[in-house]
């Protein structure tokens, strides 16, 4: 017993085991919090709407649920059409306000949870393929817990740090032969050491597994653990009959077995090699080489000893196929590991583990420990230099005046010197060009001579002398080209120097460390953005919603603003057509929302001092709101279909003859 | 001194374990290359389809200089197949005697991916390059008028780089395509180096010989120089071994060393290559740059282990260091924050990105091509690391007092 206590003291105090464990837990927590992104972010964004429907269909797919979903789908589609009609009749004066409000609230009740319904319907399409083994449930939590195939690098490093000194340290100090001469040395001490390692690993694993479970339970929620494993698309083709909770328990057991066999391997190697360098090198090579070298096939699990069990997820997966885009043939990418095969590899590994333990005890040894010298300062400097490299990508701030952005002019911009616009005359090859207002010459805006691997989005954004565009980089290293990166480039029109102010990978799955770590890449959504504008702190991407992306941290936030292809920004407030066609705004500085009173419009245009808008209360006639004194004035006593403002002129389409007319602002 | 280096070499690197590791890693490397061929090449002979035979049979007809006749001949074969498959109504039978592979769709894909697209790319390349030169020349005038000297020089370099570029020959480039982006061997090299180098400064401390060594005339500074030289030789040897093995294995596995004399931009991924070399020359240059990168990382390993008592902590730090370098390189891959990219020595080891694009670093107003900048950074950091190791190691007290 006393020997065991000494060993514990040696491992945790003298060899700094405790410090490493604390570091491991901190890193583990940090990685979980920072890196984890929901597999289905759509559900997370609309969680209340999603839960509303999930509560109605949760569990097995019955004929009632099926009928309910079909009916609901029909109802929502109808309501969407009705609501448009309702607005039209209200502003045309066909119905009274009270009827309008009454009817509208009824319809809005129906479409209130539409985003949630879309997510449920997607799930329904998956479930109905095999309704017996696929249930409706909230999947993000279980997907995060079970559906990843990453090796826990930190756990591997921690085990190396804890286990390798157990025997290596005494060989290094040549204490091994000395301890053999002692009464309590020898076999009993070797057994003691092995037991200590086992208990430590078991405790660490239990803590780590429970912690991970708790984390995901708190972050997402892990309800319905009794549902079949196949409810998660990741395991869709699995033939094993397991519940989700059971799978996690088995997964933990396999991983525990994997880590224990890894630690036995390290002890065995250290007793055989007697040297730190060789022990570490061999253990690392045995784990990392197959992990990085083997593709994501079943071999990775079956023939790799401890590694397969340390990963473990693959034991539960089913056959997987993909269609080869180049030959149009179907190829198998993963073959299910049968229970028999699993048992065989388990027992083979178990046999080796027992054999190695036997050898370790046979070659038993003892060790004497002294404090290691502290070499922290040098290493700290080294590592901090590396971390410093990553810091420091920030955009500069230039301007005090802000040129107003309007979505309607997202394809052009004009400053004192140049007029920039998207040239669409060649539909295959959109070009961003500019006209020198002084000479009238037209040039390409993007000056890079190598343009065959680039594609520009059909949008521009400008502010003063700075003009911005979205650039896609095309990767040509595969047989088929694909876009792998999107960036926003700032051009200073004074000297036409380009600067990258934002860039993102667009691969759906971010792969790191030679493809061994796979992360969800939520940012991929930023591809195919309709337009964008920006200020000193944020970039705003406009598609069906507005995504605010911090220029420094890259944090993305979806603003709950309907875009309707009519949105404007003056550097402080984002203006949009909100509820009941009211002109509304979102203040980007304090995040508050508000409405511009008594302006009901279907289209507006904002500039520094005024808002031009089609007044819905006056048969879509063109009005102007002066922002300085808040006065509203009629510009044109004609119903207008559409208008745009360019410089001092307003171009509009008459609703009756559909012809375009031009008026000068000052005349009005 | 040479004797001393020799002793150090023997002490640290002529180890049975290292030689065994080298052999095992070489076998793993070859196996990995072979699996790449099976997975990536559509004409690998393991595939049940007849693509391999058909490809090489057609290759004899179309290889070599691209002529008008060859293009016409290829199109006369391709157009009817394209027409047949266009509306997806053609028969899907697998034993059609009028086709090359037995299936008309299979024929279509084979011809498209392996003949039409590469040949079209090669044929069109000259005009692409001319376009680039034209744009660069226009830019030169524009930026001269604007007084932007940096941009002017940038375009000057581009115009010079892309002038007279054309691809005259059609050849089988799949081997080079895969060879040049192969990075698994770099990992093997780094692992072996990690093992070999971690004990260079530690081994004497483990046996408490470090104090004794200082008392001899050849100890202290001389030993450190010898250790550094021996380590450099060791790293260079390991690199040479693996890069040669890679090249030979790729050639043998892909059954072709052809295209060595084709220009690098014959590969589509090197369309905008920043060097105008042949594939053969580029392979050599790339191997050289890889070795330089490995040397810098190797020196960092040495520095990390310099003050350690045993191999455990430096070994773990080395793993963390490599992981950080690799992750940094990967997250910045394709990025236009070029400075951040090129200061990472790992970019030399996996150097595709330096050569496949024309990117510049602004060095006090002078545009420097990214591969030159990366090499410069590596040389600088190599020198600094050597200096630090030299200064920080224990001095020979006796020699110092004399």
From TrEMBL, chain A:
UniProt keyword Transmembrane present: yes
Keyword entries, A-Z: Membrane, Transmembrane, Transmembrane helix
Domain of life, per lineage: Bacteria
InterPro entries: LRP1-like_beta_prop
Bilayer-crossing regions: 12-33, 151-169, 190-216, 248-269, 276-292, 337-360, 380-397
Domain named Prolow-density lipoprotein receptor-related protein 1-like beta-propeller: residues: 604-665
Protein known as: ABC transporter permease
From TrEMBL, chain B:
The entry's keywords: Membrane, Transmembrane, Transmembrane helix
Membrane-spanning intervals of the chain: 184-203, 224-244, 282-304, 311-328, 368-389
Name this polypeptide is given: ABC transporter permease
């Amino acid at each position: 017993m006393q020997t065991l206590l000494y060993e514990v003291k040696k491992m945790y105090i003298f060899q700094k085991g405790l410090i490493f464990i604390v570091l491991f837990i901190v890193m583990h927590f940090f990685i979980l919090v920072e890196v984890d992104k929901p597999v289905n972010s759509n559900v997370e964004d609309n969680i209340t709407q999603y839960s509303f429907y999930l509560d109605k269909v949760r569990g097995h797919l019955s004929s009632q649920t099926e009928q309910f979903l079909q009916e609901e789908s029909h109802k929502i589609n109808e309501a969407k059409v009705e609501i448009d009609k309702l607005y039209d009749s209200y502003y045309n004066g066909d119905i009274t306000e009270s009827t309008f409000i009454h009817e509208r609230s009824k319809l809005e009740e129906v479409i209130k949870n539409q985003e949630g319904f879309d997510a449920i319907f997607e799930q329904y399409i998956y479930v109905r393929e095999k309704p017996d083994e696929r249930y409706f449930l909230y999947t993000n939590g279980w997907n995060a817990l079970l559906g990843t195939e990453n090796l826990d690098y930190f756990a591997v490093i921690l085990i190396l740090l804890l286990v390798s000194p157990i025997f290596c340290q005494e060989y290094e100090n040549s204490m091994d032969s000395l301890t053999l001469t002692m009464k309590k040395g020898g076999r009993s001490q070797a057994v003691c050491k092995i037991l200590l390692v086992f208990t430590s690993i078991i405790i660490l694993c239990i803590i780590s597994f429970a912690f991970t479970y708790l984390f995901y339970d708190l972050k997402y929620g892990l309800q319905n653990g009794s549902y079949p494993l196949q409810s998660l698309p990741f395991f869709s083709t699995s033939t094993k009959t397991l519940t989700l909770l059971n799978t996690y328990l088995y997964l933990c057991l396999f991983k525990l077995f994997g880590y224990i066999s890894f630690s036995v391997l390290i002890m065995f190697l250290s007793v055989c090699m007697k040297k730190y360098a060789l022990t570490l090198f061999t253990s690392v090579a045995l784990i990392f080489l197959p992990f990085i070298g083997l593709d994501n096939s079943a071999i990775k699990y079956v023939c790799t000893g401890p590694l397969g069990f340390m990963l473990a997820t693959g034991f539960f997966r089913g056959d997987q196929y993909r269609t080869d885009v180049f030959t149009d043939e179907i190829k198998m990418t993963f073959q299910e590991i049968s229970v028999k095969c699993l048992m065989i590899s388990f027992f083979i590994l178990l046999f080796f583990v027992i054999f190695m333990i036997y050898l370790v005890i046979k070659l038993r040894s003892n060790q004497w420990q002294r404090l290691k010298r502290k070499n922290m300062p040098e290493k700290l400097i080294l590592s901090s230099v590396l971390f410093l490299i990553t810091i420091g990508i920030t955009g500069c701030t230039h301007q005090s005046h802000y040129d107003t952005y309007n979505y309607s002019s997202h394809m052009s911009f004009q400053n004192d010197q140049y007029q920039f616009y998207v040239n669409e005359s060649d539909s295959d090859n959109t070009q961003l060009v500019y006209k020198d207002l002084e000479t009238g010459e037209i040039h390409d805006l993007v000056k890079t001579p190598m343009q065959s691997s680039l594609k520009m989005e059909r949008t521009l954004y400008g502010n003063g002398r700075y003009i911005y565009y979205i650039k896609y980089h095309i990767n040509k290293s595969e047989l088929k080209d694909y876009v792998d990166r999107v960036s926003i480039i700032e051009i200073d029109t004074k000297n036409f120097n380009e600067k990258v102010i934002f860039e993102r990978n667009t691969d759906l799955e971010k792969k790191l460390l030679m493809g061994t770590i796979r992360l969800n890449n939520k940012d991929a959504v930023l591809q195919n953005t309709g337009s964008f504008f920006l200020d000193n702190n944020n970039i705003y991407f406009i598609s069906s919603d507005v995504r605010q992306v911090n220029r420094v941290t890259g944090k993305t936030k979806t603003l709950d603003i309907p875009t309707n292809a009519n949105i404007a920004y003056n550097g402080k407030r984002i203006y949009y057509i909100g509820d009941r066609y009211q002109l509304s705004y979102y203040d980007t500085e304090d995040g508050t929302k508000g409405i511009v009173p008594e302006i009901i419009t279907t289209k507006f245009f904002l500039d520094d001092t005024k808002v031009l808008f089609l007044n819905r209360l006056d048969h879509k006639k063109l009005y102007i709101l002066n922002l300085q004194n808040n006065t509203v004035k009629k510009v044109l006593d004609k119903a207008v279909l559409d208008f745009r403002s360019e410089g001092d002129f307003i171009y509009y389409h008459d609703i009756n003859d559909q012809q375009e007319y031009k008026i000068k602002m000052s005349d009005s | 001194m040479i004797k001393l280096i020799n002793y150090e070499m023997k002490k640290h690197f002529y180890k049975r374990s290292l030689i065994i590791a080298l052999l095992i890693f070489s076998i793993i490397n070859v196996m990995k290359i072979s699996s790449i061929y099976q997975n990536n090449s559509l004409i690998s002979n393991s595939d049940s389809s007849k693509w391999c035979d058909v490809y090489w049979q057609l290759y004899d007809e179309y290889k070599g200089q691209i002529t008008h006749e060859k293009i016409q001949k290829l199109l006369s074969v391709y157009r009817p197949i394209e027409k047949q498959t266009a509306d997806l109504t053609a028969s899907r039978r697998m034993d059609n005697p009028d086709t090359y592979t037995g299936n008309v769709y299979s024929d279509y894909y084979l011809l498209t991916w392996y003949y039409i697209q590469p040949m079209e790319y090669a044929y069109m390349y000259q005009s692409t390059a001319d376009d680039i030169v034209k744009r660069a020349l226009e830019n030169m005038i524009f930026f001269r008028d604007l007084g932007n000297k940096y941009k002017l020089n940038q375009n000057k370099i581009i115009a010079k780089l892309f002038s007279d570029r054309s691809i005259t020959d059609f050849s089988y480039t799949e081997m080079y395509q895969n060879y040049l982006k192969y990075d698994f061997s770099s990992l093997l090299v780094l692992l072996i180096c990690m093992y070999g180098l971690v004990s260079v400064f530690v081994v004497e401390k483990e046996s408490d010989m470090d104090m004794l060594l200082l008392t001899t005339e050849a100890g202290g500074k001389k030993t450190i120089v010898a250790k550094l030289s021996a380590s450099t030789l060791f790293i260079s040897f390991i690199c040479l071994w693996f890069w040669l093995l890679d090249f030979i294995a790729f050639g043998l596995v892909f059954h072709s060393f052809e295209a060595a004399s084709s220009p690098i931009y014959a590969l589509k991924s090197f369309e905008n290559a920043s060097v105008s070399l042949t594939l053969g020359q580029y392979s050599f240059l790339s191997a050289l740059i890889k070795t330089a990168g490995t040397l810098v990382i190797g020196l960092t390993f040495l520095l990390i282990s310099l003050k350690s008592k045993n191999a455990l902590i430096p070994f773990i730090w080395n793993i963390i260091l490599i992981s950080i370098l690799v992750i940094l390189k990967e997250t910045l891959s394709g990025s236009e924050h070029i400075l951040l990219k090129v200061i990472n020595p790992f970019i030399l080891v996996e150097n595709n990105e330096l050569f496949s694009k024309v990117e510049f670093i602004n060095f006090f107003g002078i545009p420097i091509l990214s591969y030159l900048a990366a090499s410069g950074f590596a040389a600088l950091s190599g020198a600094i690391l050597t200096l630090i190791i030299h200064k920080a190691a224990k001095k020979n007290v006796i020699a110092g007092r004399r």
